[in-house]
Amino acid sequence: MGILARYIFKEWLSAFALTIAVVLGLLILQNMYDALPDLLDYGASFEMIVLYFALRIPSFVPAVLPIAFLVSILISLGSLHRNNEIIAMRAAGRSLLRMSLPMWGVGLLLSAALFYISADLVPRTVEQSRTFYANLEFAAQEETREVRDIGLIYNLGFDNPKTGRIWFMNRFSERAWLGLGVTVHERSPEGQELLRVSAREAYYDDVDGHWVFIDGRELIFDPVTNDPLRMRSFDRHEFTEFTEDPVLMLTLYKRPKDLSLFELRNVIETVAPEENPNVRAYLVRYHGLLAAPFSCLVIVGIAVPFAVSGVRTNPMIGVAKCIGWFAFFYVLISVANILGARALIDPRLAAWIPNAVMLGLATYFFSRAR
């Protein structure tokens, strides 16, 4: 058993190393084609460019490893099958499950590694690379524009049901971290307006954790009649109870697939899907990232039976069937995500159903390939 495992593992490892190098290289080249011209336009030095792509590499790993794992299994077992070594192992009384134990062990280790990478390393590097790129872009624009006019997001709104506050900003500068034309409405649990604050600009004091409003006015309403009670103007006022983080406000204006795991978790912990239906897409993406690493086990369950049971005159038939089933796997993931985002199924089910279905199919294929 030990000799067989080492032999199969050696064949797989060489194919895996070659495949991951090729796939990762192609992704880096594609990213360089998209980002390198802009980096050069922003005046990035050679060291900055190297640092940026070094930060980008970890984000490719969750996509590269499953593909490389699949291709390496098909190559290594296909080679053994073509040389009739699989037949010899079976003639010696080795079952398909026993022959594939090294692959199952590697699949489990890769799943654990991908889970750690997706949950910790990738979120940090995604945020760092995005911030690094944005800072280069903003710094290049500072030569011709004012800081407050750089990185503008228009019509930024945010509804915080926990505090009853609705925010609206005409513009928000990501470079100056400043809101322009800011209005905040504070409501009672029954929905009546209690407070309205309007200001020419406002910024978030990240040291004290609250907002500071400049050149504005405060209007207080009667909680029973909803009539205005008093109004006061101010040049500068710190609203210590206004603790909404602008990072969260900006996060809700980005696509779920562009966010890290940390950012997704921040969204779903702050805003409940029942209060904002758009949050369901973030919830589906969050659980999808947690479930994705376990696709390595699905790969073993589907790839092994087809890689060793192809037609003897044309083993590529088995490989083609395997690829077809994996195309079905990714279609199933897309359909489940759509159903989860539209509240037709629970987001957790949307993330795990594809894996469960494919592992069930893998059990069936293993039973037929004995």
Describe the structure.
This protein is of the alpha+beta class and 370 residues long. It folds into 2 domains: 2-140 and 282-368, no CATH class; 164-243, no CATH class. 59% of the residues lie in helices and 18% in strands. The chain has 11 helices and 6 strands. It has helices spanning 2-41, 46-82, 85-91, 96-99, 101-141, 246-251, 261-270, 279-291, 295-308, 316-341, 347-368, and strands spanning 152-160, 165-173, 178-187, 193-205, 210-221, 228-239. The protein has a 6-stranded antiparallel sheet. Strand 5 (210-221) and strand 6 form a beta hairpin. The longest helix has 41 residues, at 101-141.
Low-pLDDT windows of residues? none
Provide the β-strand percentage band: 15-25%
User: Tell me, what's the shape?
Assistant: elongated
Order of helical and strand elements: HHHHHEEEEEEHHHHHH
Strand order of the largest sheet: 1-2-3-4-5-6
Sheet with most strands: 6 strands, antiparallel
What is the mean pLDDT? 83
Structural class: alpha+beta
Query: Helical proportion?
Result: 55-70%
| Number of E strands | 6
The total count of helices amounts to: 11
- State Rg: 27 Å
Gap from first CA to last CA: 18 Å
Number of domains: 2
